[in-house]
Amino acid sequence: MPTYICQGRYSREAIQGMIKSPEDRTEAVSKLAESVGGKLLSYYVTFGEMDFLLIVEGPNEQAMAATVLAAAAGGGVTDLRTTVAMTAAEAKEAFKKAGELAGSFRAAGQAR
After folding, report:
1. More exposed terminus of the chain, fewer Cβ within 10 Å: N or C?
2. What is the C-alpha to C-alpha distance for residues 22 and 56, in angstroms, rounded to an integer?
3. Rounded to an integer, what distance in angstroms lies between the CA atom of residue 65 and that of residue 6?
4. How confident is the model over 83-105, as a mean pLDDT?
5. pLDDT in tens, 29-63
6. How far is CA 92 from the centre of its chain?
7. What's the whole-number mean pLDDT along residues 61-88?
8. Cα end-to-end span (Å), the chain
9. Burial class (CB within 10 angstroms; exposed 0-12, middle 13-18, buried 19+) of 84
10. CA torsion 14→19→23→25, rounded to 10°?
């Protein structure tokens, strides 16, 4: 299954609610990923520009889009960014394929 990295921020209201009643969001996020056939691999609360980082295996982009949209619709998270991640072995295969394709591709503005 593809791996996705998702980062985002908690809304002001979510932060206020979690201060009043602290909670570990791991179970809720894990259940959301599982509901589309995925698996939460890691969940971190982060400092800096983003408030959290998730690493999730998911069946496809549509499933991940659905989970991100569902989370955003709840109003507790904002500024979501999702990135598809490849292992080093997968990247090696992509570079290999790119090498095979590069010789037959004409870049824009270059004469034939």
Report:
1. C
2. 23
3. 11
4. 93
5. 999 999 999 999 999 999 999 999 999 999 999 99
6. 21
7. 95
8. 40
9. exposed
10. 30
